[in-house]
């Protein structure tokens, strides 16, 4: 199946399932196709992918999910629709016609950190080609820009920033470098001797085991367990060791202290000692 056709089929399922009304206009506006092509896509979806999944409703003037609707090219989970909304809101400044729930959705995003396009391109190419690169970098612990020879291997997106995971020649270890703090490109320094395969923390995965705060009542614990889709009173997140600090931050957890009010903390880390070893 062609990628662009799969994307249109996925939009058909997402809009129909979560918004309850699908029209050719959704496809026309989102993909820039003619109404005739959109109609063909819907008919092809019903014929080849999921016969009987949608029914036409004259009052709605569009298709709605049938009682027997079963997702075929999507997961059918709410997160899928919510992530689609977040993505389309994020793209809205460029693709203004994307048609997916804009009128009823608001997305709060943190302020973007400025990243120089030339620096990003240089890091991406060095990582792709397995090269070391000499970059100008500033940090909160050093008052002046300094040269850093690094071997980048992966760009990482956290809820608050982008950084690059790289081996640092100065510190002789793998570290995280914030993209917005690079100041210049001094040049390629040859092939990287230290690669992703040697990054032990990157290649080590640990489980963060979340449980409701033990100080909550049983009723409150049940609510928190439902919020986090816990099974048997816990939720397990598998995370690369190098990303544990950012996972903890995203979960709004402070491993060094306990909130005075359990209603404010809500969740705890069951394997706290193990997670602490990877978080600092």
From TrEMBL:
<dbReference type="InterPro" id="IPR026881">
    <property type="entry name" value="WYL_dom"/>
</dbReference>
<dbReference type="Pfam" id="PF26109">
    <property type="entry name" value="WHD_BrxR"/>
</dbReference>
<dbReference type="InterPro" id="IPR016634">
    <property type="entry name" value="CapW-like"/>
</dbReference>
<dbReference type="InterPro" id="IPR051534">
    <property type="entry name" value="CBASS_pafABC_assoc_protein"/>
</dbReference>
<dbReference type="Pfam" id="PF26107">
    <property type="entry name" value="BrxR_CTD"/>
</dbReference>
<dbReference type="InterPro" id="IPR059020">
    <property type="entry name" value="CapW_CTD"/>
</dbReference>
<dbReference type="InterPro" id="IPR059019">
    <property type="entry name" value="WHD_CapW"/>
</dbReference>
<feature type="domain" description="DNA-binding transcriptional repressor CapW C-terminal dimerisation">
    <location>
        <begin position="206"/>
        <end position="275"/>
    </location>
</feature>
<protein>
    <submittedName>
        <fullName>WYL domain-containing protein</fullName>
    </submittedName>
</protein>
<feature type="domain" description="WYL">
    <location>
        <begin position="119"/>
        <end position="185"/>
    </location>
</feature>
<dbReference type="Pfam" id="PF13280">
    <property type="entry name" value="WYL"/>
</dbReference>
<feature type="domain" description="DNA-binding transcriptional repressor CapW winged helix-turn-helix">
    <location>
        <begin position="5"/>
        <end position="86"/>
    </location>
</feature>
């Amino acid at each position: 199946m062609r990628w662009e056709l799969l994307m249109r089929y996925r939009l058909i399922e997402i809009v129909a399932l979560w918004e309850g009304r699908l029209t050719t206009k959704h496809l026309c506006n989102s993909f820039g196709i003619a109404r005739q092509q959109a109609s063909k896509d819907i008919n092809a979806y019903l014929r080849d992918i999921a016969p009987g999944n949608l029914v036409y409703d004259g009052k709605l003037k569009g298709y709605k999910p049938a009682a027997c609707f079963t997702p075929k090219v999507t997961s059918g989970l709410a997160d899928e629709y919510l992530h689609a909304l977040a993505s389309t809101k994020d793209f809205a400044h460029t693709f203004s016609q994307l048609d997916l729930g804009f009128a009823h959705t608001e997305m709060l995003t943190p302020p973007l950190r400025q990243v120089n396009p030339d620096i990003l391109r240089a890091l991406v190419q060095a990582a792709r080609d397995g090269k070391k690169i000499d970059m100008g970098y500033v940090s909160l612990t050093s008052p002046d820009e300094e040269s850093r020879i690094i071997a980048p291997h992966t760009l990482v997106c956290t809820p608050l920033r982008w950084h690059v995971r790289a081996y640092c020649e100065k510190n002789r270890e793998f570290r995280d470098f914030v993209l917005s703090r690079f100041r210049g490109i001094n040049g390629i320094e040859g092939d990287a001797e230290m690669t992703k395969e040697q990054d032990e923390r990157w290649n080590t995965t640990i489980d963060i085991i979340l449980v409701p705060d033990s100080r909550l009542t049983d009723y409150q614990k049940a609510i928190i367990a439902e919020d986090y889709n816990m099974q048997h009173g816990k939720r397990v997140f598998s995370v690369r060791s190098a990303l544990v600090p950012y996972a903890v931050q995203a979960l709004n957890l402070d491993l060094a202290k306990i909130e005075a009010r359990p209603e404010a903390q809500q969740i705890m880390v069951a394997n706290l000692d193990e997670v602490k070893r990877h978080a600092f």
